[in-house]
Amino acid sequence: MSERVLIRNGRVVAAAVPSEMASDGHAPDVLIEDGVVKSICAGLPDDGVRVIDARGLIAAPGFVDIHAHLRDPGLEYKEDIESGTRAAARGGFTTVCAMPNTEPAMDTRSVVEYVLREAAARAHVRVLPIGAASKRREGKELAELGDLAQAGCVAFSDDGAPVWDATLMRRALEYAGAFGLPTIDHCEDPSLAKDGVMNEGRVSTRLGLRGAPPASEEAAVTRDIALAEATGAHVHIAHVSTRGAVEAIRRAKSRGVPVTAEVTPHHLTLTDATVAFGANGGDELVYDTNAKVNPPLRSQDDVDACVEGLLDGTIDCIATDHAPHAVIEKLCEFDDAAFGISGLETAFGLCMRLVHTGRIDVGTLIERMTAGPVRALGLDRHVPGIGTLAEGSLADIVLLDPSAEWAVEPERFASKGKNTPLAGVMLRGAVVMTIAGGRVVHGAEVGVA
Question: In angstroms, rounded to a whole number, what is the distance separating the alpha carbons of residues 445 and 449?
Answer without folding.
Answer: 10
